[in-house]
Amino acid sequence: MQAGVCGITADVGDGLGVAGRISPWDFKERLAALKLPPSLYSRARRAGHRVPLAAQLSLLTALEASIHAFGPAEDMPLESANLIVAGNNISPGYQYQICEKFSQTLDFMPASYALHFLDTDHVGILSEVLGIKGEGCTVGGASASGNMGVLQAWRQIRYGIANICLVVGAMTDLSPMELQAFRNAGALGGNRFKTNPEQACRPFDRDREGFIYGQGSACLILESADCAKTRGAEILGHIAGAATCLDAHRLSHPSVEGEARAMGLALEQANTSPEAVDYVNTHGTSSLIGDETEAKALKDVFGKHINSVGINATKGLIGHCLHAAGVVEAAATLVQMNQQFLHPNLNLRHPIASAYGFVGTTTQAADIEVGISNSFGFGGINTSLVIRRSR
Predict the structure, then answer these.
(1) Residue 367 sits in a domain of what CATH number?
(2) Fewest C-beta in 10 Å: which of 46, 106, 278, 301?
(3) Same domain, 60 and 76
């Protein structure tokens, strides 16, 4: 991210042309690389050995986050923790593969499918491996699912329901059916960039075509301040405020008023003025209408201050991770805060709006005290997080 390397490549699968797919990998090798204690490794290998790709990725990201937070202990202090998996209809790609085999051989249907087609399978796998016995659920909000998960975890911590809550943004495994529907709706981009895939995702650029499908997962561990301080935890940042609101429609059309309202409500929750914000990690999908709408909403919120706010879009580097996007981009915000840089907008050559603080095509140094991370979803779901750097 700091190097400004793009993960979007040529992709012949499903006729996409370009995508930010995860490179081929081996679950057992990735699991072994974590160097887990023997019994934890055994539980993880057993639980994740033959589950769908998205569930394997959820397990690996949750393990990585837990190791970072608590160390590679045999028994992590997670028995009373809560768990939220952000995403709904997570694995249609897996279901499509099973359906193809079933249509050819009617006797074919693994009994495990009765578990794997349910999003809650992720909750079960993670709780089994990590020993979580608190509350657990999935949260759906289309492309705002990740932020919705973080928001719900923040509320649980804030109101004393939990001291620790894991939020996993699940990888969205799309099938050719969903991808073709997005293409028919005019939402997918990349048609003009098949020979230059790294140029395909162009948030806020005049030459943008639509979003680029990305695969990814991330996990954040939220913890009460008292709990974190008591155990001497490394605190990467604080969720200072979070908000969500609806546009009162079921379509894909975004709303300037709704997006601005979500940002304003989150700032109000954080007791923070727009002038105090240093950075915005935008929803910025490279869509024709979406980017135009968000640019106007940002202007409504920040006014004259818009030229002094650093603005970028992580999707320009990795594509649109859909359900996981909010968690991935909140993590990206924390990384930039702690390492004091803003990643580039690689393909922002001709901005759709002038006098904005858009980051250029190269990484720039930055002192970020307060940041906003936006996610908006079909059905008029608007979400915004205010993240403050740990002092």
Answers:
(1) 3.40.47.10
(2) 106
(3) yes
Q: How far is C-alpha 63 from the chain's CA centre?
A: 17
Final residue before a domain boundary, out of 205, 230, 255? 230
Note the pLDDT of residue 107: 81
Residue listed under structure tokens 């996993």? 168
Position 158: which residue type? R
* Residue 327 identity (one-letter amino acid): V
Kindly report the length of the chain.
391
Q: Are residues 253 and 372 in the same domain?
A: yes
Helix pair 325-339, 145-158: axis angle to 10 deg: 70
Task: Note down the domain range covering 67.
Answer: 9-179+214-230
Does the pTM of the predicted model rise above 0.70? yes
For residues 91 and 218, membership in a common domain is answered with: yes
- Half-sphere exposure (Cβ direction) of 386: Cα atoms closer than 13 Å: 22
User: Strands across the sheet with 370-377, in order?
Assistant: 237-246, 381-389, 370-377, 279-281, 310-312
Residue with more model confidence, 338 or 25: 338
Q: What is the pLDDT of residues 308-348, one digit of tens each?
A: 999 999 999 999 999 999 999 999 999 999 999 999 999 99
pLDDT of residue 16: 79
- Which has the closest alpha carbon to 217: 287, 340, 125? 125
The answer to whether residues 219 and 295 belong to one domain is: no
Is 381 a domain residue?
yes
175: tokens are 């099938």
CA 129 to chain centre: 22
Task: Output Rg (C-alpha) for the chain, integer angstroms.
Answer: 20
Q: What is the pLDDT of residues 223-276, one digit of tens each?
A: 999 999 999 999 999 999 999 999 999 989 999 999 999 999 999 999 999 999
Do 146 and 169 contact (CB within 8 A), yes or no? yes
Q: Does one domain contain both 226 and 255?
A: no
Burial class from Cβ neighbours inside 10 Å (0-12, 13-18, 19+) for residue 389 reads: buried
2 within a domain of the structure (yes/no):
no
Other beta carbons within 10 Å of 139: 22
Element (H, E) at 98: helix 92-104
CB 221 within 8 A of CB 69: yes
Clarify whether residues 268 and 156 are in a common domain: no
Tokens for 132? 């979580």
- Which phi and psi (to 5°) does residue 86 adopt? -90, 120
CB 257 within 8 A of CB 102: no
